């Protein structure tokens, strides 16, 4: 009964809604870009989020799940994340695009280790479609070169993004049994043990640190 | 020397920038949708605007024009249009998506009658990619059914969109000789005569009236 796995519904629903909101948020911020070139780059990144969401929504339908119903439980946590991390300026928008997207991708990729092979393959495909964030690295480094005081504020901002992402992930884990069962197990699945969960969080934190480093920011 | 026609550069630059901003604006408003389904529909409409802009930017490059430079002169008028027509709520967003997009498409299609065949063909292709606005008709009619008082406000809103579009079109015509020469002629082109310009405005106004009618709004 893989096709009707509620954990897959939750995983795809959470990812799809997250990408839909990222699309809307990044596209909206593209208008604040200091140059047309940067605005276009962020617009393209936004469009790739929607394209990824479409793949997940299509798969949800193929699996017999209503896409809107699958996304609905994640509206609260995802919206809360964005309300608490509204970028104050263009540099914060860029860091959020890069760091926020990176955390989300890492997290979903880790989770996908516990679902069936077809679902995992789709998560991997969607997750690697985000190489477009690379332009952000150069843009953030250039902004810090122009105004070195930015580095301190953006470093704090990166930590805040990570903190809020973990907050909302915990909220989801508490509310969504099917999704949580992937990690902690239930009558039907072994799940990961606590050591493995702890290792997973370490891997996600390390990847975050590498991204902050790439941006020239203290993690 | 069709390939280096500055009127084509202006036409494509204006359209592309208009679509880039429409992408950003519509995508940003998708988050305010009352349902996930409507938000997704508006997101898809937004994405089609970016896809159309990409076609124009690519053609500009093929013609030897720098895309950013071609768009730059239209930043002022397009941004001014959007600043003056910021939707107050979801119903206004929908009407703007449908009516604003319709006016822009009609206008650029009319102008394209005066450029070379390849450029005209591209404008037609980009202009017909907007059938996605059709979902708006049902959504606006449903909103008016729920709250009939909306009809009066939205009718005024539609008139204001048309008025602001004409204002900014006049501003562009006054500032951009190459584009204006398509209509009024110069040493190299005959242009349209005044009778034809007047007919063109009548056609655009009539199409606007039909769209308002489709939405159930007094024009």
Automatic annotation (TrEMBL), chains A, B:
Taxonomy, superkingdom: Bacteria
Boundaries of every Ferritin-like domain copy: 6-185
Protein name per the record: tRNA-(MS[2]IO[6]A)-hydroxylase MiaE-like protein
Organism whose genome encodes this protein: Kineococcus xinjiangensis
């Amino acid at each position: 009964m893989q096709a009707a796995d509620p954990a897959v519904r939750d995983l795809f629903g959470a990812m799809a809604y997250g990408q839909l909101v990222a699309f809307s948020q990044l596209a909206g911020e593209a208008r604040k870009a200091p140059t047309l070139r940067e605005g276009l780059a962020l617009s393209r990144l936004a469009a790739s989020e929607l394209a990824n969401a479409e793949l997940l929504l299509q798969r949800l339908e193929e699996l017999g799940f209503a896409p809107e119903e699958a996304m609905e439980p994640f509206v609260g946590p995802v919206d809360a994340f964005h309300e608490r991390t509204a970028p104050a300026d263009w540099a914060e928008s860029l860091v959020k695009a890069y760091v926020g997207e990176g955390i989300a991708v890492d997290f979903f990729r880790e989770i996908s280790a516990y679902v069936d092979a077809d679902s995992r393959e789709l998560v991997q495909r969607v997750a690697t479609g985000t190489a477009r964030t690379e332009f952000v690295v150069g843009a953030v480094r250039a902004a810090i070169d122009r105004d070195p005081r930015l580095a301190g504020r953006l470093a704090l901002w990166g930590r805040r993004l990570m903190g809020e992402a973990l907050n909302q992930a915990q909220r989801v884990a508490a509310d969504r049994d099917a999704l949580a069962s992937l990690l902690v197990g239930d009558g039907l699945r072994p799940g990961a043990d606590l050591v493995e969960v702890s290792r997973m969080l370490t891997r996600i934190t390390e990847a975050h640190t590498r991204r902050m480093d790439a941006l020239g920011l203290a993690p």
